[in-house]
Amino acid sequence: MCLFQYADDPEPEEQGPAGPLYVPVRPGTATQVVLRIFRTPLGERTAVGFTRPDLLAATLGAGHPWIRLSESALRALASPLGGCLLTIDPTLTAPAVTPAPTQARTRTGDVAARAL
Q1: DSSP line for 25-45
Q2: pLDDT per position as a tens digit, 22-67
Q3: How many domains does the chain have?
Q4: I need a labelling partner for 39 at 20 to 30 A (CA). Which of 5, 13, 45, 109 fits?
């Protein structure tokens, strides 16, 4: 632990601007795209930006559509959508939730899995 405070030492919670970001989008109309809003592990809505396109591809898959935006532009677009948080370079994503298969008995009494 440091006993002295220096004027030029930033606090760990204070982060500088991220610079231009690669922002995931989804197709909209023929001339527009729609900003994707994600959820944090605690369920809060968040806008997501990546500092490099390879990080976006590693997290969301190759070929995922994106646009370049500054951090302030991303915050301005996300605020009316309820995405007040901004997550930069997330590394963990979960697949979409799918319903669990149900079990049904066949004529012979065997149990067969059936999707809902």
Answers
A1: EEE-STT-EEE-EEE-TTS-E
A2: 999 998 887 888 899 888 888 888 999 999 999 999 999 888 999 9
A3: 1
A4: 13
pTM: 0.64
**Nearest Cα residue to 69 out of 18, 15, 14:** 18
Residue at 57 is within a domain: yes
Q: For residue 86, what are the CA distances in angstroms to 26, 31, 56, 89, 91?
A: 18, 26, 15, 10, 14
* Domain limits for position 58: 21-88
Read out DSSP for 45-99? EEEEEBSSHHHHHHHH-TT--EEEE-HHHHHHHHGGGT--EEEES-----PPP-P
Let me know if residue 79 belongs to a domain: yes
Of 69, 68, 47, 66, nearest in space to 58 by CA: 66
Contact 57, 11 (CB under 8 A): no
Q: Does 32 map to a domain?
A: yes
